[in-house]
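Lecture notes, part 5. Sequence design as translation. It can be helpful to think of inverse folding as translation between two languages: the language of shapes and the language of residues. The source text, in structure tokens, appears below.
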């Protein structure tokens, strides 16, 4: 049985999902290198991302969401 709790995932736009993928794949990312700042802001509001000193990074909930969306296996192939 998985120890991860299932998140109540809200529908995401393509750019929100792409921004989530960017942070999952690349790790902490500077503001100027983000695909979309509005998408990042939405992810922060949902507590999937945090921002500090111009850096953006996934929270525990953000990593869990990425894994639930199957990004873990995709990351291994890229």
């Amino acid at each position: 049985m998985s120890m991860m709790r299932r998140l109540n995932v809200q529908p995401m736009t393509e750019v929100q999902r792409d921004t989530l993928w960017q942070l999952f794949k690349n790790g902490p990312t500077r503001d100027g290198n983000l695909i979309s700042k509005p998408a990042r802001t939405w992810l922060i509001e949902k507590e999937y991302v945090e921002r500090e000193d111009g850096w953006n990074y996934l929270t525990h909930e953000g990593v869990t969401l990425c894994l639930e969306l199957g990004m873990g296996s995709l990351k291994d192939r890229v």
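The translated text above is only one of many valid answers, since several sequences can fold into similar shapes. The longest helix spans residues 14-26.
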